[in-house]
Amino acid sequence: MAGGRSLALITSAMALALAAPLGAAVQQVGSAQALLIFSERQALEQRLQDIGWKLATANAPFCDQAIPAVGLQLHDMASYGAPETMRPLLGLTSDFAVLTVASGSPAAAAGLAPGVEIAAIDGEDLNGWATSGSRDWRRTVRAHDLIDTRLAANGSVALALAAGARIALDPVMACASRFELGGSGKRAVAEGSRVIIDRDFPGFDYAEDELAAAIAHELAHNLMRHRAWLDAAGRKQKNVRLTEREADRLMPWLLANAGYDPGAAIRFMQLWGPRHSGGILRKRSHDGWDERAEGIKAETALVEHLRRNEGIADWGTQFRREIAPAE
Prior knowledge:
It is built from 12 helices and 11 strands.
């Protein structure tokens, strides 16, 4: 992950999007409804983390920036609008707990699960950290930064659970990008080191491999360092269009290595494009969705050919760039 932060980090945007409205919801609609809202958002977050983990770890051999990761996402009651009501609502006695554990990750193999309370990371008491009060997301960031620091320094990290057990996590390598559930919009965006998928993004209604295609598209922007390239080259429409074409073309490579059908990239564009990327409303910075689908189709054929003949889809050496890589 860019900047040395964990694959499953909740940043300020994520914390505010998930936590702050829920604090108010407890008081406005009651505990049962607030818990349902939390559970629905947690389920979306779990889908995103599971898919992101598969894409990031399976493609790590081909990334030029890969980091140690354990697939653990924490949350802090101090980040909620009403911490004193969220603790009993979630059955917690302290502030830090597991929010999600990526399927197949070291955290999952160690038996960690949502709701498990975390007391300390490598001996450092999380609940003793100062907080400015409700909706304070900074401790969550600090906790994930601490995990990353210890993984980088020691090759493992030890967690002390509130129940008294101690768990040591040994990481695996993953492409350097985080995955976060955003707010109530319909966006899917890449911000250089983060992939952010809003709660109402249409892809959440699609099959898993088609949602994975959308996530792969945004991950591709980060892996190709498109944000840095655009900062240097300028955000003219023609430049943005080049980065979008590259991200489209990398989708089937990322999917294939993660065990998904690379053809899902084509299906995603055919499902999403007519409603969200076509007609007179089409962004001039993007090709038409049908043109994009054709470009993905041609790249998918190449990916399938390489997998039949070489067994892998090594985009690190065989993917054709359309722009000069950013330094």
